[in-house]
Amino acid sequence: MERCLQLAALGAGNVAPNPMVGAILVYNDRIIGEGYHQQYGKAHAEVNCIAAVKPEDKHLIPESVLYVSLEPCAHHGKTPPCADLIIAHKIPEVVIGCRDPFPLVNGRGIEKLMDAGVKVVHGVCEAQCKAMNRRFFIFHAQHRPYIILKWAQSVNGIIGSSLQRIFITNEYTGRMVHKWRTEEAAIMVGTHTALQDDPALTARHWPGKSPVRIVIDMNLMLPPYLQLFDRSVPTIVFNMIRNTINDLDRDITSSREVWYYQVTSDVSPVQQVLHALYHLKIQSVLVEGGAKLIQSFAEENAWDEARVITNEQLYLPEGLKAPEPGAARLSFSERLLTDRIDYYRNPSIQ
Which strand (E) or helix (H) includes residue 279? Predict the structure, then answer.
């Protein structure tokens, strides 16, 4: 199963909103085939795994064990059901990392295999398998995107200035942040950050796809010449004045338009944003600032992970205080020259 997870990770950034999945086919402790889900809408891990078996080993498939990190699908989507493929190849045993929470699967793949006489073992390395696809699991279990809060601060906890842009991180950490952007479906900033920093919010310093841009601009104060509105990637503006998204089920991520979604004042803006993004099938969001926006997510406990970059060689005598995410649990830390990166999890989110 650890090998399945290694393979699954190769699909990062390319398969969303599908989960990352890896599979291997084993005959007498020898791997005869392995594969992973490489691209959204393309073949699943099980298909690629079986297709990878060499011609001279094809006859061993009905005597082999299939290991897969996520429950095989049992429905017709963009590809045929993987459970049917397994049954058709007469694979006698399947070892599964964890069940698929997607409503059209969620145990149906396991049930279909067992009804066909396939021996099924599931829950192997379950915690690791769920952790790999935590965005996918949160999205389907809680009906909202996976939220990552990210900010950079000085050694004394200053996030920036209200008057001018301050560069806190070093060049190498900056590149890593661009890598993070390629791993999420969307990136979000507030009005103040958009005005003061004029960020492009793209992944231009790392190979990969730039995320959908989201800006919270309640009164539509932002001028049209900002980089956010250059139509290089899809952009959504949450506001209280204008609406151009009349159908939340439409695919707005395939066009490079600027879309406007209207929220109301009688319900929490954070909850309205999460509701809309869920229906727009935005599976994860990197909330990059500013401090007020990040704090609003923290206060509503609407976050899953926080990444805090601290420049330990930078002291700022005054400025905006960094957010406080509450009961955050430190997962691990790493260091990149002057910067320490602390990764936190929200202990109240399962």
Answer: helix 269-279
Q: Of the residues 46, 183, 288, 305, which is catalytic?
A: 46
pLDDT tens sequence for the chain (350 residues) = 999 999 999 998 788 889 999 999 999 999 999 999 999 889 999 999 999 999 999 999 999 999 999 999 987 777 788 999 999 999 999 999 999 888 778 888 999 999 999 999 999 999 999 999 999 999 999 999 999 999 999 999 999 876 677 889 999 999 999 999 999 999 999 999 999 999 999 999 999 889 999 999 999 999 999 999 999 999 999 999 999 998 887 788 878 899 999 999 988 999 999 999 999 999 999 999 889 999 999 999 999 999 999 999 999 998 889 998 778 999 999 999 999 999 999 998 76
Which CATH number characterizes residue 1's domain? 3.40.140.10
Q: Is 46 a known active-site residue?
A: yes
**Nearest C-alpha neighbor of 235 from the set 213, 203, 202:** 213
Q: Under a CB-based contact definition with an 8 Å cutoff, are residues 308 and 169 in contact?
A: no
Q: What is the CATH number of the domain that holds 176?
A: 3.40.430.10
Together in a domain, 32 and 160: no
Boundary of a domain, candidates 137, 154, 184? 137
* Same-domain check for residues 188 and 128: no
* Count of domains for the chain: 2
Q: What is the pTM of this model?
A: 0.89
Say if 224 falls within a structural domain: yes
- Interatomic CA distance for residues 272 and 114, integer angstroms: 41
350, part of any domain: no
Cβ atoms 270, 298 nearer than 8 A: no
Q: At residue 308, what are phi and psi to the nearest 5 degrees?
A: -115, 120
The parent domain of residue 186 ranges over 144-345
